[in-house]
Write a structure and sequence with these properties.
This protein is an alpha/beta fold. It has 18 helices and 17 strands. It starts with a strand and ends in a 5-residue tail after the last helix. Bound molecules: iron/sulfur cluster. Iron/sulfur cluster (SF4) binds next to loops.
Length: about 500
């Protein structure tokens, strides 16, 4: 069967493709690579990957393309399921014989609900879906395929679980799919050089953070890895394939979770002369950081999450604030840039803990940061905790983004409303960035490179526009709440 792997068009600027951990529209243009779809696409000869949002592909063009395929596999997510179901229905309306499958974290943990989202969805891939997609694309009968749920005689049938992949080297490289189907210049991440390419060298994370999507839904808590040589070979290949790329990003949940292997890879990358970056926890020592830096590491993406010790314990972060301080200091000393990520609205946030976090971020003083709202995805411990404690604001617990694609505050706590959490994001950004140090740092990078200068000006414009937009979202939410509230007697 000819097969199309599809990230459908969605909210304007929605970074919800098959590689995004938080499916939402960002403050500045950001698009992750759809690696989770590129991987099965690499297993299916003559398939095609269509990643609509970054390529500005609208619904008409998407439907036209889909018409040429017998089989369409859509990567969906909690916030985009409704939209993706409509796209599936439109594909079926155009060509009723098209077989449509849904994959992704939401489908992995809620296969029944996902199938029920629309009669246009023929099957759902649970857990790790690479080989499930391959077998469906080969035309095997659905009832014989592990890890798959489908409809049979009006009933939903769940086939037995698929085993997790043990030999990660058995997965083909994604490089050729990227080159064939993606225009890599369309992919931006604010803190990465442009153009960048991201890929995975392994899946799963041994840490237990309660809010974290991939390890609790698809990847698991064992870090399963490709061999260092396999990774180095693909990097050498990518370097030839994409000579224009300025930075390679290892998007593994925690690339540094297996340090001996990370060191081995770094050693092999050094002679290739690549600039690379990766996700890391804030718990590595100076010597290791310095050795990575000497082998081309430019940036760590680090989840600090909170500056309140109780919250860090409650979300099982597994790294203390002192360890975070030490790590950050070591990175500053070694000259490794950090993009830090923080989350507001984790249990149990208070005005005081928000101030703690803002102050902690200022103390760490990393190059750049991102502030997200806690997103309780189905399948995560945070979701269960919120459900049991009645922290969800809305009845629909999957309503995680506004109509414009920006995140909304899905949780609130006794003494801290969702509006207060939402407002604190704006306050956090302003308190952090409107200080002399970050401003001077940004100006310095602009003076060093004309392209960076143009990009930062655009991002600055987008950033302040998004803050305005978020304010409007908040006002709209307040008005809606006022209308819904009963009139005083
Ligand atoms: S360390 Fe990072 S990737 Fe691992 S579980 Fe925690 S948040 Fe997720």
């Amino acid at each position: 069967m000819s097969t199309l792997f599809l990230s459908p068009p969605s909210f304007d600027g929605f970074d919800g493709g098959a590689g995004s951990r938080y499916q939402a529209r960002r403050e500045i243009t950001s698009f992750w690579y759809p690696t989770w779809l590129a991987q099965p696409a690499a297993l299916v000869p003559d398939s095609r990957l269509l990643d609509c949002p970054p390529h500005n592909i609208g619904i008409q063009q998407c439907l036209e393309t889909a018409k040429a395929f017998d089989h369409v596999i859509i990567h969906t997510s909690t916030p985009s399921l409704k939209n993706d179901s409509k796209v599936a229905e439109a594909i079926k309306a155009n060509r009723p014989e098209t077989r449509i499958g849904f994959v992704g974290a939401h489908a992995a943990v809620l296969p029944t609900e996902t199938l029920k989202a629309s009669p246009a969805i023929d099957w759902v891939g649970r857990k790790e879906f690479d080989f499930t997609c391959k077998e469906v694309a080969e035309g095997r009968p659905l009832e014989t395929i592990d890890g798959l749920s489908f409809r049979k005689d009006g009933k939903i049938v769940h086939n037995r679980e698929r085993e997790m992949i043990k030999n990660m080297d058995a997965l083909p490289w994604v490089a050729d799919v990227y080159q064939r189907d993606l225009q890599i210049e369309k992919y931006f991440i604010g803190y990465l050089l442009h153009p960048y390419v991201s890929m995975y060298t392994g899946r799963g994370c041994p840490a237990q953070c309660t809010f974290c999507l991939w390890p609790q839904t698809i990847g698991g808590h064992k870090y399963r890895v490709r061999s260092a040589q396999n990774v180095a070979d693909e990097m050498a290949y990518m370097k030839k394939l994409f000579p224009q790329v300025k930075e390679f990003f290892f998007d593994d949940d925690t690339f540094t979770a297996n340090l001996p292997r990370a060191r081995e890879i770094a050693k092999k990358l050094g002679p290739l002369g690549l600039t690379w970056s990766c996700n890391s926890r804030a718990n590595i020592d100076y010597d290791t950081i310095k050795s990575f830096k000497d082998c081309g590491l430019r940036l760590f993406l680090v989840g600090y999450e909170s500056g309140n010790a109780d919250i860090l314990t409650r979300i099982k972060k597994g790294v203390t604030m002192d360890e975070m301080r030490k790590f950050t200091q070591a990175c500053h000393q070694a000259g490794v840039v950090i993009h830090g990520t923080f989350i507001l609205g984790l249990p149990v946030e208070t005005q005081q803990s928000i101030e703690n976090t803002i102050n902690f971020a200022k103390e760490l003083d990393v190059f750049s940061l991102q502030v997200s709202l806690a997103a309780p995805y189905p399948g995560t411990e945070l979701f269960e905790m919120a459900r049991q404690n009645g922290w969800f604001v809305k009845k629909d617990k999957t309503d995680l983004v506004e109509n414009d694609g920006f995140q909304q505050s899905a949780l609130e706590y006794p003494g801290l409303s969702k509006e207060e959490i939402f407002e604190a994001v704006d306050r956090f950004y302003r308190a952090y960035y409107l200080r002399p140090k970050p401003i001077l740092r940004i100006i310095k990078t602009m003076l060093e490179d004309k392209d960076v200068c143009v990009r930062r000006l655009r991002e600055g414009y987008e950033f302040f526009k998004s803050l305005r937009q978020r304010k409007e979202d908040l006002e709209a939410a307040k008005s809606a709440a006022a209308v819904a509230a009963p009139a005083p007697a």
